[in-house]
Specification:
The complex is a heterodimer. Helix content of chain A is 53%, strand content 18%. Chain A is α+β, with helices and mostly antiparallel strands. Chain A has 2 domains: 3-53 and 279-415, no CATH class; 67-266, no CATH class. The two termini of chain A are 27 Å apart. In chain B, the strands form 2 sheets. In chain B, strands 6-7-8-3-9-10 form a 6-stranded mixed beta sheet, with helices on both faces. Chain B has a 4-stranded antiparallel beta sheet with strand order 2-1-4-5, with helices on one face. Chain B has a single domain (30-55, 75-221), classed as Rossmann fold (3-Layer(aba) Sandwich). Helices cover 33% and strands 29% of the residues of chain B. Chain B is an alpha/beta fold. Classes of the chains: A alpha+beta, B alpha/beta.
């Protein structure tokens, strides 16, 4: 028997029972749809993180404090977990590292920024002029923080585009005074929008002040020895080839300054941003797999539905099977007929599920809960995976009913009432 | 064409063994029209099913056109049913969702060959039903349904037509029409074996074989 004829037979018997066929497909539609939706959220998050890291600058090394007691209790947010060990003097000492294009201390925290009646919560950075290169910032109007601002602890800020727009609307903020922690700061510049977000936190919702001002007026933090602390030091490498070299230089200089002889007792660590990216991506891909696994449960339920319906269908059509065998259908013909039916149920269900899941993931990417958005990506790989899983499920769950049909004795089948 | 030698058939119904055929030997020649008669339970349907490769005998030998049927596997038997045999059943056994034409095309789906539609129409013409080709079985009378079934049996040019009580569900007019079709087909050279319990139908054949309790008790040759 030709394949195309089997296909026509399968389509005819599926359309003869439209309600039943569509309800059976619904199981697969929901299963495939949820796999697509959840995986797209996972992949979207991964893509978002990657692009954010790229926007934050490439070939960047970060020096962070490291606990020497090994008591890395995870209680506070981010770098506040560990007692700070780095200072501005460390930064100064590192300025002589060859192949480093720029170097900047980076402290950050969340604060309320206000102008007139408007106010907005933003991430406040304390840094130095080098941070413009490292963070890959372009200034839209005014200027970035200058060396003199740092030296004289000027009460000045550079605003991210989102903060500027929120507080000043179309007006130019440069020269105006904004309020943070009950103190007034003069706006000296506004940044170009970057358009990225890190887990829902916009890269444009920021305020940058001189590190010295940050330490003295906004968030003061001390090292164990009572010096003003620097949370992290960012270093821009000229290229990815020199990062290892820079890492070594940084380690040597800081060990000397901190009087460390034993490498195991380092009170700092040097990370490449690429490493961090890999780490975060690993976490996210585990999260994506878990989401997919949860969604697969509904796919399993859908496949049980197909098997159930196919068993009913085989019993119902016992007489038809008998007739077909009497006029010369071979076992294989009957087997193929029923397998095709279940494969078509799951294939059509799978395709509808993909379209539905894709629409749903589009919808999810449009949702905005207080500034936090989820990016979704439906990649060809997910679609191909979902289709093959759907067809596999159709064949797998259709096999037992189809074998039962094929094995029927024609006499008994013809006598069946 | 058909050589049956000492055929036995035992059914297992739970723990009870039922002997449906107890040593039947029968020869049917090419071009014959034979009626198998007997009370229900006499084994005539079982014998017909064995002749049509739908059932396998428990014992004995069956030679069909010189081929020992017991040597054939399931696929080969399906092929033989498709090419050599046409079945006509008491309950017509048409596919309810397919129209007359599609029902007649059914054996060709499994047998291959070209011009399926044309050949199916020709078969319907031979039973005088070409006008009703697009009707579904439920839209046809019993006699018409049985004629569709005969067209389906004819479509692959079989050498043998096996009919199991083909007029059992029909009124006398329709029954007479069906029998006259069988007679005409037989004149055209097709061998026909007819199972019936109605004597006036059996009497229109050239040979009557009477069964009782799984054995042939009487064979009559009539006419020529």
């Amino acid at each position: 028997m030709k394949f195309i004829e089997s296909l026509i037979i399968a389509i005819r018997s599926l359309t003869a029972n439209k309600l039943r066929s569509s309800l059976t497909m619904l199981g697969i539609i929901i299963g495939v749809g949820s796999v697509i939706t959840l995986m797209s959220v996972g992949e979207g998050t991964q893509a978002m993180i990657t692009s954010t890291f790229e926007k934050m600058g490439t070939n960047v090394l970060i020096v962070i404090p490291r606990s020497t007691e090994g008591a890395q209790s995870r209680q506070g947010p981010e770098s506040e977990v560990i007692t700070p060990t780095l200072t501005l003097d460390d930064v100064k000492a590192l300025e002589n590292v060859p192949s480093a294009l720029a170097i900047a201390p980076v402290n950050n925290n969340i604060a309320q920024v206000a102008f007139g009646g408007e106010s907005k919560q933003a991430r406040v950075y304390g840094s130095s002029p080098g941070y413009q290169i490292i963070g890959n910032y372009s200034v839209a109007s005014g200027q970035f923080i200058a060396e003199t601002n740092v030296a004289s602890r000027d009460m000045v800020v550079v605003l991210g585009s989102e903060v500027a727009e929120e507080l000043f609307g179309p007006d130019n903020p440069v020269g105006q005074k904004v309020k943070m922690k009950e103190q007034r700061f003069t706006v000296i510049g506004v940044l170009e929008p970057k358009g990225g977000a890190m887990m829902g936190l916009s890269l444009d919702n920021i305020v940058i002040t001189p590190i010295t001002t940050y330490q003295a007026k906004l968030f003061s933090q001390q090292t164990a020895r009572g010096e003003d602390a620097v949370q992290t030091i960012s270093i821009q490498a000229a290229s990815s080839e020199v990062t290892d070299e820079i890492t070594k230089d940084v380690q040597n200089i800081l060990r000397k300054r901190h009087h460390i002889t034993d490498v195991a007792k380092d009170d700092f660590a040097v990370h490449e941003q690429a490493e961090q990216l890999e780490m975060v991506q690993e976490v996210v891909s585990i999260f994506t797999i878990v989401l997919g696994a949860i969604a697969s449960i509904s796919l399993l339920v859908g496949s049980i539905g197909i098997m159930n319906i196919m068993l009913v269908s085989v019993t119902e059509r016992t007489r038809e099977i008998g007739i077909r065998k009497a006029v010369g259908a071979k076992r294989r013909d009957i087997l193929v007929q029923f397998l095709l039916e279940s494969a078509m149920l799951s294939l059509v269900g799978g395709v509808i599920g993909i379209v539905g899941g894709w629409l749903l993931s589009l919808l999810i990417s449009l949702i905005d809960i207080s500034g936090i958005t989820l990016q979704t990506v439906v990649s060809p790989a997910i679609v191909i995976l979902a289709i093959s899983v759907a067809v596999f499920i159709g064949l797998a769950s259709g096999t037992y009913p189809a074998v039962r049909a094929a094995r029927m004795n024609p006499i008994d089948a013809l006598r069946y009432e | 064409m058909i050589e049956l030698e000492n055929i036995t058939k035992i059914y297992h119904m739970g723990k009870v063994e039922v002997s449906a055929l107890r040593g039947v030997s029968l020869d049917v020649q090419q071009g014959e029209m034979v009626a198998l008669i007997g009370a229900s339970g006499s084994g005539k349907s079982t014998l017909m099913n064995i002749m049509g490769f739908l059932d396998k005998p428990t014992g004995g030998k069956y030679i069909f056109e010189g081929v020992d049927v017991s040597q054939l596997n399931d696929n080969k038997l399906a092929e033989m049913r498709n090419k050599k045999i046409g079945f006509v059943f008491q309950t017509y056994n048409l596919l309810p969702r397919a129209n007359a034409l599609a029902n007649v095309e059914l054996p060709m789906i499994y047998g291959g060959g070209s011009q399926k539609r044309k050949r199916a129409m020709e078969a319907l013409e031979r039973v005088g039903l070409s006008r009703r080709a697009n009707h579904k079985p439920t839209e046809l009378s019993g006699g018409e349904q049985q004629r569709v079934a005969i067209a389906r049996a004819l479509v692959n040019d079989p050498s043998l037509i096996l009919a199991d009580e083909p007029t059992g569900n029909l009124d006398s007019n329709a029954a007479a029409e069906i029998i006259s079709i069988f007679c005409r087909l037989n004149q055209e050279g097709i061998t026909i074996v007819l199972v019936t319990h109605e004597m006036d139908i059996a009497s229109q054949t050239k040979r009557i074989v009477r069964l009782l309790d799984g054995q042939i008790i009487l064979q009559e040759n009539r006419g020529d």
